[in-house]
Amino acid sequence: MAILGKCRTAIVRNVTFAAMDNAVLLTAMFVAPNEDQEPMFWFRGYPVFATYFIVAIYVASMVIGTVAGPAMMSAGVATLGFFSELVHRGEVWRILTYGLINPPSIPFVIDMVIIVWFGRDLERFFGRAKFLRFYAILYLLTPLVFTVLGFIRPMAISGETGGFALFIAFAALYPGAMMFLRLEARWIAVVLVAIYTLQNVFARDTAGLIALWVNVGFAVGFIRHSQGRLELPPFKLPAFGRRQKLRVLPDPPARRRDSPETDAMSDVDGLLDKIARSGMASLSAKERARLEKAREALMKKDRE
Q: How confident is the model at residue 165 (pLDDT cuts 50, 70, 90)?
């Protein structure tokens, strides 16, 4: 029994490490494929995932703008760019089209590389549906906040892709990942956020500073909520109509409780079965948190 317990501990440790620190390895070795991990479609034998589809839209907008020339690009900014005062007048499509203004530049190329590199890892971890939901909220968040702040002062934005926020989300999800010069992702993220903050403060760019921290805060918050480390306040609609009568029921008879260790292993077995059937993306935030808690408990017992 002791040997069996140690083997089970090792399996749980390996699976949870892979789930939290290497989603690619988990998907390839431990998790059965499911529809949410499949490409959106195939193009000439090549898989097109959601991340690649997003990049293709941005690249297409850049190519169209380049072919059209500077004059048409300026007209595109006037027609599609986000300006809070125009949105207040009813031109709400600007909330959706502001990101399609992308002249050719080195920063644009870097943004596309960042989306492909880090966005693909996030898509593997979340699954296609949740990743698209994350990116859609990220894309809309800044113009929505600027729409509200526009009642105080005019706000404008165009051509933002959200690439930096994807890196922040990656660093929050895999803080110990080794990056450039053998620096961990968390420290690179902290340094870059600090540098961009100082740049915006020096330039007195209030809009840029707000957009930076809105995106950073959302990216980190979304990851923490997905990990079960951040709970949103409950929101319930008020109940209308006649109230139901309540009655007091007797306490149910007490039953024998299994030991905490037995309960924990039973819970972990169920979660591992769910991962094997439907993939890591099928776990809810609370289930991920229970899996991580069980791993820590088993590792602590193994050290003892």
A: very high
Which one, of 300, 143, 171, 289, lies nearest residue 230 by Cα? 289
Higher pLDDT: 18 or 147? It is: 147
d(CA 187, CA 59): 30
Question: Own/partner pairs for 14-20, CB < 8 Å, 24+ apart?
Answer: 15/272, 15/275, 16/291, 16/292, 16/294, 16/295, 17/295, 19/275, 19/280, 19/288, 19/291, 20/227, 20/288, 20/292
Cα gap 67→76, rounded to integer Å: 13
Rounded to two decimals, what is the model's pTM? 0.68
Mean pLDDT, residues 123-148 taken together: 94
The alpha carbon of 137 is separated from its chain's Cα centroid by a whole number of angstroms, namely 10
206-264 per-position pLDDT tens digit: 999 999 999 999 999 999 998 888 777 665 655 555 555 566 666 666 555 555 555 56
pLDDT of residue 67: 93
Backbone angle region of 277, left / alpha / beta, with phi > 0 → left and psi within -120 to 50 → alpha: alpha
Number of other CB atoms surrounding residue 185 within 10 Å: 21
Decide which of 33 and 180 is more confident: 180
